[in-house]
Amino acid sequence: MDAVERHRSRYTPEELKRLPPGQVITQKWPVLSAGPNPLIDLAAWRFRIFGAVAAEWSVSWEEFRALPRVSIKTDMHCVTRWSRLGMTWEGVSIHEVLGRAKPLPETRFVLAHSYGGYTTNLPLADLLDDEVLLADTADGAPLTPDHGGPMRLVAPKLYAWKSAKWCNALELMPSDRRGFWENYGYHDHGDPWTEERHSGD
């Protein structure tokens, strides 16, 4: 039995069905970032939605925390091949905030912006998935800076680099524009189930 088979033998058939091709399950939560954590002052923190919207919309941290909240339990899959099953996220549904900004009919794509300069692009159709939220807690605890706190985008049906840490804005766009990792050769879409890891996949 090789190392992969030994690893897979630890988990139930139901858990393995939730594992995309090429992934292994971890109980830990690895910390992966392109640079140092940005320093974020909650008193000055703001999140906004702009671009192809009927009305640009923004909130302070206190206003964000007062919005209606949701909780989801879902799996996270990283392009570096680890998967963490059954994570519980709490925050604000993407539908709650987009409903306030009112995307224009020509909107097809979204560029997520983060403190520190990170960006990543998503089709609007993927952003509108019912599991997508702006999360400020994970597994019952506030998000730490290492994992994108105080708030990150969570788009669990795509590889985790699309779940932008330290998210502070969503730019709605009629046409696509690549983000940070996409410009370095990562796939424009990032579906774990079809292994869309790199631009040539």
Descriptive account of the structure:
With 201 residues, this protein is α+β, with helices and mostly antiparallel strands. It has one domain (22-27, 45-194): Sulfite Oxidase, Chain A, domain 2. The protein is 16% helix and 30% strand. It is built from six helices and eleven strands. The protein has helices at 3-8, 13-17, 61-65, 94-101, 124-127, 180-183, and strands at residues 24-25, 46-51, 57-60, 70-77, 82-93, 109-114, 119-123, 133-138, 141-142, 152-154, 167-173. The radius of gyration is 17 Å and the shape is globular. The protein starts with a helix and ends in an 18-residue tail after the last helix. The mean pLDDT is 93.
Supply Rg.
17 Å
SS summary, helix count: 6
Distance between the termini: 29 Å
Question: What is the CATH topology classification name?
Answer: Sulfite Oxidase, Chain A, domain 2
Q: Judging from the principal axes of the Cα atoms, what is the shape?
A: globular
Query: Runs with pLDDT <50, length 5+?
Result: none
What is the β-strand count? 11
Jot down its keywords.
201 residues; alpha+beta; Sulfite Oxidase, Chain A, domain 2; six-stranded mixed sheet; five-stranded mixed sheet; 16% helix; 30% strand; globular
How are the secondary structure elements laid out?
Elements: H1 3-8, H2 13-17, E1 24-25, E2 46-51, E3 57-60, H3 61-65, E4 70-77, E5 82-93, H4 94-101, E6 109-114, E7 119-123, H5 124-127, E8 133-138, E9 141-142, E10 152-154, E11 167-173, H6 180-183
Parallel strand pairs: 1-5, 2-11
Antiparallel strand pairs: 2-3, 4-5, 5-8, 6-7, 6-11, 8-9, 8-10
